[in-house]
Structures are given as structure tokens and as C-alpha cells.
Amino acid sequence: MAPRRSHKKSRAGCLKCKKRRIKCDETHPNCGNCVKHAIVCDFSLPPEERAELELQQQQQQQQQSSSSRAAASNSPAPQPPQPQLQPHPHPQHQLARCPSFHGVPTTPPDNINIVDLSLMHHWATSTADTISNRPNVQVLWRVDIPTLAVHHPFLMHTVLAISALHLCTKEPARSGHYLPIATRHHDRAVRGMAACLAHISRDNCDALVVSSCLVVIYSFVSSRIDESATIASWVPLLRGVHSILKQAWAWVAGGPLSPLITQYELSSPSDALDAETEGVLSSLYRLCTDRTLPGSEELSDTSTSTAYFSAIAELRKSFATIMQWESINGNIFVWPITATDKFVELLVERRPRALVIFMHYCALFTLIEEFWWCKGSAMLELRRCEMCLSQDWLPWIEWPKTRILERDVEKVMGKGSPIGAGAPGRQEGKEKSQ
Description:
Blueprint: H1 15-20, H2 32-36, H3 47-73, H4 114-125, H5 135-151, H6 153-170, H7 175-197, H8 205-225, H9 235-253, H10 258-262, H11 275-283, H12 286-289, H13 302-321, H14 328-331, H15 335-338, H16 341-348, H17 352-362, H18 377-388, H19 398-406, H20 409-413, H21 418-421, H22 423-433
Helix pairs in contact: 4-5, 4-6, 5-6, 6-7, 6-8, 7-8, 8-9, 13-16, 13-17, 16-17, 17-18, 17-19
């Protein structure tokens, strides 16, 4: 009889492998099985979180053993069925009809501790009302989306990451504490989303759309913290949200989160712009035609000149569309989506013409400076673009630079525009964002 092959037992494996009763290769910081199944390996967790998970697993095993012994020694009489607690559907959005919101989650969000509970409390009492300025959308962020996050751990991690970032801005003295927490949750969220993006369905589309929107906000804020961040680093992420939304539009539009996307449809372009703004935007077309400007050889490429022309035309639409405070959060992000792939490529390459057009778009950010996640973004992008532009191009960004420095909403949009009439709403949003 052939001798049995010797093998090494895994005694220091991760908790996920132990729970599944499979051999762990004990690779740090993520074992091979966890990488294969795209789940968070506890090897990557801080020691205190790993110790807490081990304690929870031991308690669960003890409870299961006690239940098994009790069942073996006794023959209990049949018990009447017990009522099951179900999430109470929101009266307005009827969450129970949406597969993403229905029932008890099959697996609880992983690695939630007391710090995470405090972050969720901060989200519900503060952060949720600062994401949007529309009351019905604020209800979604405050009530419905946390309910959805219970069923989708990657969304839970995204929510907690944004809550931690918000605390970074509210408590700068403790940013060294909150920033690593935000980063850890963000990294886990991105890994979880990546595993689902190849299989977008009715069940996960809501969570993916919401998580993608929050990832853009995270990029907005982190680009102000990370000095190495590039110009417009958040633009590709925003276009990625649109890509996901296109695949799931029918499901999301017909579901409880429809107010999130209908905010993009509240305003229609107006032909009226104040004379100053109209003149400045019209002058940008010289970028597509004036061969006396530096780098004019790139205009010989039709795709390049067309990309600039299209970006300017769409930018004028954005200025003409943003006329109502209630719809500004949605409409202000339309331009980076409608710009062509070629223009985004030119922007990433830091072509001067693309940077000039982008800076005129950033002048619109002064309208949403009251939101903590956008505060300072326009100024930051201005400084980065100035560093990339030669002296020949600086006069071309004088107009947006003035608007950004002054943060004068009426000068950006034109004196007497409906935006100015919405001052009470803007003040209310400002108070909530602080």
C-alpha cells in the first residue's frame, strides 16, 4: 500500500477560509482564495479588527454547537410560525417592489465595527443632506440608500468612506484619524464594485449607480487632499457613471431611485445669456480656427478641431441650462459627459486649448461652492491649469479666473438670472453643508 503523501496543515489561515473549511495558502496581505473570489481577506485588516472577527466567529461556533446538542437531546413540540421582520417600505418609493431592496440580506456587510456605526450615524444625521439640494433626493440619501447598502457591502463601504471624508472637512484636527478610514472603505468599495460591473442586473444596478456617484464625490474631495492628483482626475470617473447608467437606465428610471436621474431632466437650455458671457463663450471658437495661436498645427487634424468645437458648443448649453437652483447639482455635471472621448483625451494630455475650455467650465463650480465636497475644487483646478499653460495662453483664462476668485454667482450667470432669485435655497444648502 503506497504511503500517504505528507501535507502541511494550514493553522494560521484567514477566517474566510476557515469558515468555508478550505485550505488557506496564508499569503499576505490577501490570500489566494480571497483574491480568487474577490472578497476582502482579513489578513489586510488592522489587528484590532481581525481580533474582533475571530471573537465573533468563536461565539457563532459556540452557539451552533449548543443548538446542535439541545436539538439532539430534546424533541421539541411543533412551534407556530413566528412573524418575520421585513424592512418597512418607504411610502413614496415603495422599496419592497424593487428586487435590490427586498428581503433580508443573505450575507451581512463585512467588518462593520463601532467606528463604522458612528460613521453611519454621521451619514444619517449630517452627510446625507449635503449630497443634494433637493428635499426628495435628500430623503433617498438619508433613508433609502442606507437600506439598500445593507444588501450590498460595496455600497456600504462607499457610504462610510464619504461620511469619513465629510468628518475630515468638519474636523480638520482629526483628519489624520478619519482619512485612513475613508481610504480603507473606499478601496474595499472599489474592489466590490469591480466584481459586479461585469454582471450588471436589476438586482445590483441601483447599488452600482449610487456607489459610482459617491466614488466621483470621493475623487472630488481626495483630489484636493492629494497633491499628486492630476487635472480633472474625476472626469473619467464621471463618464464611467454615465456608462453604467446607460446600461441600467430602464431599471433605475422605473425604480425607487428614479429621482436621482430625473434631476438631469429638470431644466432645458435657454437661448438667453447675458452679453458678457455670450461674448466670452463665442470667442472660444477662435481656438478652433485661429492659426496664429501657438500649437495651431494640431488643428490640421479634423478630429481634434471638431472635438474642441463640440466641447465649446456643449459648454454654452451648460451655461444656458443651469438656471434653476433645484436642478443645478445634476445639470452642472452634464458637460463632462457630453464632451467627446477625443476631447477628454486632449484634456488628459494637457493640451492648452483643452485646458482653456475646461477652465471656462470650472467657472460654473462657483455655483456649488457651498457644498463641502466641491468647496475649493474650482480654485484647485485653476492653479493646476495655470502651471501647465505658457504665458501666451494666460489671457485666455482671465475671465474664468476672475469668476473663480470672486465667487460671484451673478457675474457668472448674468445679473438678474433665476439663479439669483434662489438665494434662500442656496443659503439653506450652505447651512446643511457646514
